[in-house]
Amino acid sequence: MYCLCLLLFFFVLAIHNWHGDVTHGLALDVGDCVEILEETAYWFRGTCPRKPRKVGLFPKSYIHLKDLSKVDPVVAECTLVLREWSEIWKRLFVEREEYKFTSLRKVMLALLESRRELLSSTLTQDQTYELQMKVISKIDWGNR
């Protein structure tokens, strides 16, 4: 079984589509974040934030564990926020809330660009700090 400390240091991501074709299976799409609750030799039992209240099984081979302790925490947070906001952005499109849709799109594109710059490792320490503060500010704005 995975403990909470593992989930804090690993970003768990579906790398293949899984239709959940087994009893109590949890269907996953490529790119889904996954919370691991239990582990066996070949399977995980967990949940996906995109499908709240649904817990199920999926193969270990369909999941990638990325060690976040080696990634800049602002970049990691930006990645998680962009995944979360993409669901909101899709809903705004479907509900035809054009102003909110456009506003969120602009902020998401700015975050993607900032994330790219932070990952490039070409900035000075001062530039990195300044960009991290801008990213945090945009995330705070979007979470209101």
UniProtKB/TrEMBL annotation:
<feature type="domain" description="SH3">
    <location>
        <begin position="7"/>
        <end position="68"/>
    </location>
</feature>
<dbReference type="InterPro" id="IPR026791">
    <property type="entry name" value="DOCK"/>
</dbReference>
<dbReference type="GO" id="GO:0031267">
    <property type="term" value="F:small GTPase binding"/>
</dbReference>
<keyword id="KW-0732">Signal</keyword>
<dbReference type="GO" id="GO:0005085">
    <property type="term" value="F:guanyl-nucleotide exchange factor activity"/>
</dbReference>
<keyword id="KW-0728">SH3 domain</keyword>
<dbReference type="InterPro" id="IPR036028">
    <property type="entry name" value="SH3-like_dom_sf"/>
</dbReference>
<dbReference type="InterPro" id="IPR042455">
    <property type="entry name" value="DOCK_N_sub1"/>
</dbReference>
<dbReference type="GO" id="GO:0005737">
    <property type="term" value="C:cytoplasm"/>
</dbReference>
<dbReference type="InterPro" id="IPR032376">
    <property type="entry name" value="DOCK_N"/>
</dbReference>
<dbReference type="GO" id="GO:0007264">
    <property type="term" value="P:small GTPase-mediated signal transduction"/>
</dbReference>
<dbReference type="InterPro" id="IPR001452">
    <property type="entry name" value="SH3_domain"/>
</dbReference>
<protein>
    <recommendedName>
        <fullName>SH3 domain-containing protein</fullName>
    </recommendedName>
</protein>
<dbReference type="Pfam" id="PF16172">
    <property type="entry name" value="DOCK_N"/>
</dbReference>
<feature type="signal peptide">
    <location>
        <begin position="1"/>
        <end position="20"/>
    </location>
</feature>
<dbReference type="GO" id="GO:0005886">
    <property type="term" value="C:plasma membrane"/>
</dbReference>
